[in-house]
Structure formats: C-alpha cells, structure tokens
Amino acid sequence: MSEDIQVKMTTMNYDKERPTAENPVKVEDLSLRDGHQSLFATRGRTEDMIPVAEMMDDVGFWAMEVWGGATFDTMHRFLNEDPWERMRTLKRYVKKTPFSMLLRAQNLVGYRNYADDVAKAFVERTCENGMDIFRTFDALNDYRNFETVVPVIKEYGKHFQGCMCYTMTEPRMGGEVYNIDYYINKAKALENMGADSICVKDMAGLLAPYDAFHLIKALKAAVKPPIHLHSHFTSGMSPMTHLKAIEAGVDIIDTCMSPYAYRTCHAAIEPLVMTLLGTNRDTGFDIRLMARINEVLEKEIMPKYRHLLDDTKMSIIDINVLLHQTPGGMLSNLVNQLREMDALDKIDQVYAELPRVRKELGQIPLVTPTSQIVGTQTVNNVLFDDKNERYKMITGQVKDLCYGLYGKTAIPIDPEVQKKALKGYERGEEPIVCRPAEVLEPELEKAKAEIGDLAADLDDALIYALYPVTGKRFLKWKYGKEQPPQDVQPRTLQDAMAEQELLKKAKAGLLVEKSDKDRPEKSESSRTFNVFVDDDYFEVAVDEVGGSPVVSYVQPMAAGMQMPAAAPPVAPAAAPAAQKPAAAEAKKAKPKTPAAAPAAAVEGTPLTAPMPGMIVKYEKNEGDAVNQGETVVVLEAMKMENALPSPASGTIKSVNFSSGDSVAKGDVLAVIG
Ligand code: CO
Predict the structure, then answer these.
(1) Domains of the chain, CATH where assigned
(2) pTM
(3) Which residues are within 8 A (CB) of 511 and not within 5 positions of it... i.e. 6 or more apart?
C-alpha cells in the first residue's frame, strides 16, 4: 500500500465507526450513458432510468453522466425519444447530483465537425435544458476544436471538463509521441483554456496501473484543476488502474453500478467502495443503498436489455487490446469487414498494416471516428494494394483527414500519402492549417429553412441540423405526421420474460409438442416472435391468455432463409448471429432495371464493386465522357466512402444502380465503352 493511503477504521462497525474521510475519492456514475452505450448499444430508455433515479441521487456521486456521446443519435433514431426531453425528465428526479455529458467538441454529438453557428446553438440549448458538466474531447486532441464550444459553457457558468484521449504506440506509455510530456503539455493547454477539471479519457482500457500512477502523479504536480480518470475495463486492467491512480492522488474516478459494469464498459463501484472503506479516501457511500438500486436494475430493468448483450464469448476481457492495442469496437468492425469480403484469413496482415497506416496518417489516437477511419483504410490497403502501389483505394474520410478537416494530427501525415489522397479532392489539393471549422459555411439558418414548420422550436431544429435524415423522420413521429414503426416501441418486461420462456422451451425441444387441448383460434392481437436456437430459427406466434403466453403456432424456418420483411414486435436481435440472414438478404444486388444483365448486355469495360456496400452517388451518368482514373461512383462500406475510379477512358454506356442501393462484391456498377 502506498504511504498516501491510511486505514482509519479497524473495527467493522459499519455505521458507528466509519470516519469521514479527509479526502474522499469522488465518483462519477456512468450507468445511464456510457454504461448502456458500452454494453447495450445505447438502447437504454428514459422510462428505465426513472425507477432508480431518485435512489441514485441519494448515493452522493460527484456527478451522473446521463447524456451526450451516442445517446442523442440513438434516442431519436431507434427509440423514438426526444433527446432533450430525457435531460429535463431526469432533472425532475435527480435534484442534488450534477449532470454530466460527453461532448465531442466541434463534432457535438455527431460524427463530423459542425459549423460554428450550430455548435454554439447546440451548447446554449444544452445549458438551458439543464446540463451541468461538459466533458469535452476531440479525437485528435486538437484543442482548436474546443474554441467555439468552451466560451459558451463558460458564459453559462457551467463546468468545463477538458479531456485528453489516452492512446499509445508502444506496449506501455512512452515512445516518441504519446509519452508523459505529451500528456503534461495537453493538461497545461487545458488548464490555460480554463478547464474546471481535467479528464484522462482511456476509452480503450489501455492505461496500465503503474503508468496510471506515474501519469496521475505527474499531472497533479503540473496543473491545478482536479484530475478525473475515465478508464474502460476492456483489457481487464481498470480496477487495478483505479487503485494505483487513487494512490497517486487522483480526484475523481468513473464507475458504473455493477449490473452495467465490466466487459467493454467500466469497473463497478461496489468493490471500490469496500476497498476504500475506513481509509482516508473512503467514498462514504452506503453499500446497502447500492444493493437496493442493483436489485431494481437486475429484476426490473436489465432483463429487457439482455438480448443486446454480446454473450458470445465466455471471457469478459478483450485480450486483443493488450496484444494489438486495437479498441474492442474497432476490432469487431475489422473482422466483420473482412468476413464480408471473404478475407478473414487476412486478419494477421491487417494487424501488421494497421500501425503503419496509423503512423502514415499522423499517429492519431484511435477513438470514434478516427478508429473507423484508420481501420477501414487498413483493410482497403490489405485487400486492394499491390507491390507497385499502396493506397489504391482511399476513403473520403481519409481525404478529409489529409486535408485537415478533423484537425492537426499528432505527427505530420506522410507527404506522399497526403498528396495522393488530395489529388482531385473537392475542397482543394492544398491542405489547410487553420482551425477546421473556419472553412465550414454556417449551417443553422439553412437547416431551419429546410425543416420549416416541422420544427416547433430551436431544439427540434437542432435535431434536424445534426441528423438531417433520421432527425426529420423523428420530428414526423413526434408531431404525429407519420406512424413510428413497431421496432422503435419499448420492449416490456413481459415481452422479455415471454421470450426467455420460449427460448428455454425451444432449447428443451418442447415447442413442437402437440397440445392435448383443442387448438385455440389465433387472435388478432397475437404477436410474432423470432426464436433462434443455435442454427435453427423458428417463427412463433404468441397469444396472451390470462396473463401467460400460449404458443399458437411454430413455424420452423430454414437457416439462411429470408426473414419476414416487417419488423416483428419483439426486437429481433435475440442472438446476434440471427440477424445474418436478413443482413445477407438486404445486401443482395437490386439492379435498377430487373431485366438488365449489364455485363453481358452492354459491351465495354465493367466497373465492378470491389466490396459489398451501399451506393452513395454516381458522379457520372449514362452518356458522360470519362477519363481513366476519374471517379464514376461513390460506394459506402463500413461507414466510409470510397470513390471508385473508371477502369478505362470512354463513355459511360450503362449505370446499373441508383443512390441508396445495396450492392454485392463483384456487381457491375457501370460499363465504360
Ligand atoms: Co467511455
């Protein structure tokens, strides 16, 4: 034990002898944001937060993180919930504990840099709606991307928490870029910007315990603001990292209530409370109150989300983070991408290429969205490059990065890669050196004009400005202009229990048993469930009779068969593998004219899809002249845009798909003759 930690209590009389700690570790609870974002794809609903909100307010957390990150996107897109309303609703139950949010700086709660006018209005409205602490980060640690949002936070008298994304290039902290000096300099920059606290944001769980000790000690000596540690559990190190950070004098630690803890999420609070009990850094939290909260979560809330938990692995630790420093989400993206291309055997090449691409792109931290940018480009290089040419297929986002649209990279981008990426780039071939948002035209008035009366206020207009397509659809649901689909409806505890029951029966082979009783009539209110048992898939209709579900029919479905087009009333994600047939089906090519057999019918050089994806747009139309190497079509794969060049010079003889179409690898997208 470090000399800094002293045990003050020797008896175990929990209530009477527990001294008030001189310097209690402060704790931010993340259950209602990062918790369900990390474990349940951010699908937590407001109605499932209310039952524990008041009890959680009583714990004594320094703050509760309840908003930001992916919540804004997920709520309006998948849950038919107004993101602004959640903040206001929870405020009615949580009256003492400050609220915290994750703000992606100029990216706000989206995935690109927004113009200054949108950024300002968004932060203003967030302050007005009740946010207290703004945890602000930039994927490149380029604090010029803070320059618009921070003055607004300050103007409203709110807490500006500046983050540094923790990343590394070596197995331990150090090396030429991400060494102790790098982080000290970042902390000083944040202090100079007026940070009320400074957060070490270890999003991939890479921070090792002894590095944490070293880092926190150095930060405490270098800057005045309190130091806050956000360290994901992913690699399994975080509970040890927390303890060493506490010994080094960290002020605030992030944790989750235990039902929301571990895996790619955060360590649980309860073991930490007991670890520090009776020491000079005792949290002072009542472990029995936490047990009561957990009971509600376990019995009434979590069963509704169990189907979203990735339980395909026994291990709750992702060892790849330790081996390759590849964050959990990024790795599964890479694997999916390779699988779609039938190239899973190339995973080792991808691991080898990844650090090289990352270095060439400026040794950037790997966090949303940079992890996707580096990951997808790596896969493209492994699949399409040859001995004579690298970076044969450069994504649109890599071009934006090379232009400077995300900000300044940790080291300069490789000049050759940069030059190649910017050849013919729409904004210009010369990269910018200014703050990225300076080259962005104002967006807010245009967005307001576009959405018109469908937005009742600025909050509505901002939903549209941030997410034009899904935002508009949400506003139509909100104002009754369109009926929201079944799959955005909440899942009830009864739904979850009924499904569990069916799954159990299906596994035991009981679903096919004939009932002794007469077959009841299937009612109109019967609900359809998809039940997945290993490779088999059953469609089951269920009627509610006197409260208990009665199976009225079971339809075995062949594996790989097309799933029903309409979304079933129960979320179909019961098993992740079960979504595959639908996904595979959706990806089947849909030629514009069914009769067209383009490759055979039209003579010329075909331009084929090098990977499965979705057509974003055609840059050339039928009859247009085209030079070899000119972009014909932009294809989106794994959220990244790929501009596909013409394989020959000539005229576009045929264009076989349209914007929004899904295509398979090898589909003929156009013919040049
Ligand atoms: Co996090």
Answers:
(1) 326-433 (1.10.472.90), 585-672 (2.40.50.100)
(2) 0.80
(3) 502, 505, 531, 538, 540, 551, 554
